[in-house]
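> @MW can you paste both from yesterday?
MW: sure, first one:
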Amino acid sequence: MNLQDKRELNTGFGDALARAFELVATPGIFALLGWLLDRRLGTSPLFAFVFFFIVLSYVVWKMYMTYVADMKRHEKGLGKVSDRVE
């Protein structure tokens, strides 16, 4: 394995760790803020759930759109699959 392959592998691990942290920590932080707001207002954990699910939905959507853009960029670099099959 050459240096470029090792660098690419390490970058992939770093990107995966960053995405995992973003997927878990960001909705958790907003759920905590919602819980604090619920405590102050005396409501049920309504804001905690709403903040959690809104932020979780956004993070998943953002990751999906990033994936789609990366795949389009990758396909553009490789050429069309149908061109290579025939």
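MW: second:
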Amino acid sequence: MRWACLALWAACLPMASLPGQREPKPEKVDAFQDPYTKGDAEQLKALGYVAIGQFLWLGDVTTAQVQQILGDDIAIFIETEHFKLASTLRSFPWPKDKEWRAALRAEVEALAERCPGFKTKSRSLDPWLRAHLYAQRLEALYADFCGKLGIAPGTFPEDRGGKRTADYMGEGPYLGQPGKYLVVLAHKALSAGTYTRAFQGSAARDTTRFNHDKEGSLATVIAAEFAEKALRDDRNLHCHLAYSVTHNLVDGFKYYWQSVPAWLSEGISLWFSRPIREEFLNFSGTDDAGATTLRGHEWERRVRMRVDNDVWPKAADLCQVMSAAELDFSSHMMVWSRVDFLMRGHAEKFGRFVARMKAPMTNEARQPTVAEIVQRQAQALRDELGFDEAGFDAAWLAFVRETYSRK
């Protein structure tokens, strides 16, 4: 199955004001000579890496063959515990914004603590350093996802073919997937398109997610030139990556047998990505309300205003939507807020609810129907969270009024 990301679009800042927007010059990158770890086995182990440079990418396809597909856009390949990353990102200047600069510095210092080869006072974030940062960010996201939803990584099987009983946990060790999660971070849109044409059958013009069902790997492909080049800003790229990969983690949990309702997958993905940069909006849609009084990213205030004015979607309707494409701007805020409510006040129960929604719904050789998914959802709401749809509304309303400020 192929997904086109709902992507993006807009940070709430004009493009001209974003730092680092000048076209980076092509760089000579040696994809097999990491200047930081020097390829030392102990250093790689300290960073949690399985391999860098050359390894099997997907099935029998090697990273060398992927590089042939990418042509002269040189990729850095890093395999971690749960991901395989290919990055052709170019150097990024240290930002002038103090808060952002401090956050990046802290990330580099964390790398230096584990591997002394990293320098904390470099002139820019070069391609190798950026690849290392994203490898670490991906594993941090995976750990956070498991931690917040109460998922024990050691509970997944090593091989395919387990019986789809009540204790079924999927078809492999990577949240239930047999293969690791693939991430391609390209600088050029052309490179992303070339890659997806080779592996997915058509050239991507936008961020894509793809299910390689034979190999059991879920892929995310992003280019910095997508979203009208807003992803050249590293904060935007990091935020969008978290949003896109979280979608794949939700899908891959207990193996990708079925989709879940849009409020759940979209809400969880927004919840994990917005703390990185809430100003960046990871979906397309019209800002249909509040534009004259509030900035687009002020979701708590916007949700509170809608609640105060009794303009909000009922759970009975929201829980039936299966495609995120059906969600408008305000609905994205609402699904994020529903997950925010559950994550803040009912995290353990919510984790069990998500696990129920990802458990097999049929032993037959077919995907469940929308009616079966909605029926499972209603039962899981009662069993795991303790309320029906009307009760969900009432509890969420009380949370919004108590937690979200009008100012």
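> thanks! The CA atoms of residues 209 and 220 lie 5 Å apart.
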